[in-house]
UniProtKB/TrEMBL annotation:
Keywords tagged on the record: Cytoplasm, GTP-binding, Magnesium, Metal-binding, Nucleotide-binding
UniProt-annotated binding residues for GTP: 205-212, 230-234, 252-255, 318-321, 343-345
Single GO MF descriptor: GTPase activity
Residues of the Hflx-type G domain: 199-365
One GO term describing the cellular component: cytoplasm
UniProt organism field: Marinospirillum celere
Domain of life of the native organism: Bacteria
Name of the featured protein: GTPase HflX
Length: 431
């Protein structure tokens, strides 16, 4: 990293406030899971409630004293807030508590930094960290606080900060340039898939919903999967075969979380583009979670933010083994799949998922028996070339009867290339 902070332990005091505004509320249990995923040890949880955060410390003076006492008693190295703090609030808290203070965004960034494995993933995380750090840069230069001015002491602190800010901006610009190259390569791969008309299916969902476990089950690969938040960071793509559709590209993407930091959304734009440009989204949901409905809403918010809200989606309720229910497909009034219930852990219901994907992705088909006059040899040959003929037989008059089954798009293109109108065809059995 460009800017290293002093090493510290992992003993942390957690601070969680219940805010009056619904939009500002966070989940304390999820917060503790985040800390565990980051490798921290929660030695105390300080909770409270406020209608509005304090401008200076975010928490009130009484709660601040409670946190200070917990830090002292537990010999904690770090105080973690389950909220987004302003840079000034972090500085004031560090001064008052005499230990490191990190907010929810910083904690998520730290988890992402631990999980990144690929070149692109590491660049994206570093970019998000540097942009987040740029507003908090002054904290790294506490050794200059002794320079209060006076003869021979004016200026060095500000000069050092300005120098570091320039280096920081240069580093950010360099990462942007390298990410642009990576994005171009990813765009070229995407374009090649489109030209080959290979559908892409992206797994999206709340973090720890079981996306990677499902991905491994469908692709028989060994992507890292664990019972922790953000176990998967780098996108993984595999090719699978699905029924009548044929080859499909399946993508495993980073999990979402409520109030996902905007800097992360911006930095991971290329990765998240796999979801926004997918043919179909598999929205994986932890069916056993008490926050199931809220998690679905939070994921939809992020999908809207990355312009993927309009992509066709299939809800996949995972972890059915914890509910002791049977796998099933729920359908809409037209009989199209809208929800699949399964267990990625045991594999129960994955065949139903593949069936649902097949139904949703398979193109509209032309099916029926077409009667061709003896002179329609070119149309007959083209239909065989397209692989759309299931059976063929001739009647006594020499007419050819073809049992057809091929995509409507291919059939219309074929007719257009031969300048034949659909109303000119003679169907023995109409499609």
């Amino acid at each position: 990293m460009f800017f290293e902070r002093e090493k510290g332990g992992d003993r942390a005091v957690l601070v969680h406030l219940d805010m009056q505004e619904e939009a500002d509320r966070e989940d304390s249990q999820e917060f503790q899971e985040l800390v565990r995923s980051a490798g921290g040890e929660a030695v105390a949880l300080i909770q409270g409630s406020r209608s509005q955060p304090s401008p200076k410390y975010f928490i009130g003076e009484g709660k601040l004293e409670e946190v200070r006492q917990a830090v002292r008693e537990q010999e904690a190295d770090l105080v973690l807030f389950n909220h987004s703090l302003k840079p000034s609030q972090e500085r004031n808290l560090e001064q008052a508590l005499q230990c490191r203070v990190l907010d929810r965004t910083g904690l998520i960034l730290d988890i992402f930094a631990q999980r990144a494995r690929t070149y692109e993933g590491k660049l994206q995380v570093e970019l998000a960290q540097l942009e987040f750090m740029s507003t908090r840069l002054v904290r790294g230069w506490t050794h200059l606080e002794r320079q209060k001015g006076g003869i021979g002491l004016r200026g060095p602190g500000e000069t050092q900060l300005e120098t570091d800010r320039r280096l920081l901006r240069a580093r950010i610009s360099g990462i942007h340039r390298r990410l642009k190259k990576v994005r171009t390569q990813r765009e070229n791969s995407r374009r090649a898939r489109l030209q080959a008309e290979i559908p892409s299916v992206s797994l999206v969902g709340y973090t720890n919903a079981g996306k990677s476990t499902l991905f491994n089950r469908l692709t028989e690969s060994g992507v890292y999967a664990a019972d922790q938040l953000f176990a998967t960071l780098d996108p993984t793509l595999r090719r699978i075969d699905v029924g009548d559709v044929g080859p499909v590209i399946l993508a495993d993407t980073v999990g979402f979380i409520r109030h996902l930091p905007h800097k992360l959304v911006e930095a991971f734009q290329a990765t998240l583009q796999e979801a926004s440009e997918a043919t179909l989204l598999l929205h994986v949901v932890d069916a056993a979670s008490q926050e199931r409905e809220d998690n679905i809403f939070q994921v939809q918010e992020v999908l809207d933010e990355i312009h993927a809200g309009e992509v066709p989606a299939l809800l996949v309720f995972n972890k059915l083994d914890l509910l002791e229910q049977e796998p099933r497909i729920d359908r809409d009034e037209e009989g199209r799949p809208i929800q699949v219930w399964l267990s990625a852990q045991t594999g129960a219901g994955t065949d139903l998922l593949l069936q649902a994907i097949d139904e949703l992705l398979v193109p509209r088909l032309v099916e029926g028996e077409l009667c061709l006059a003896p002179e329609a040899t070119r149309l007959r040959a083209k239909l065989f070339d397209r692989g759309g003929v299931l059976q063929e037989h001739y009647d006594e008059a020499g007419n050819c009867h073809l049992q057809l089954r091929l995509p409507e798009k291919d059939f219309n293109q074929l007719l257009s290339s031969l300048d034949i109108g659909a109303d000119e065809l003679d169907w023995s059995t109409k499609p």
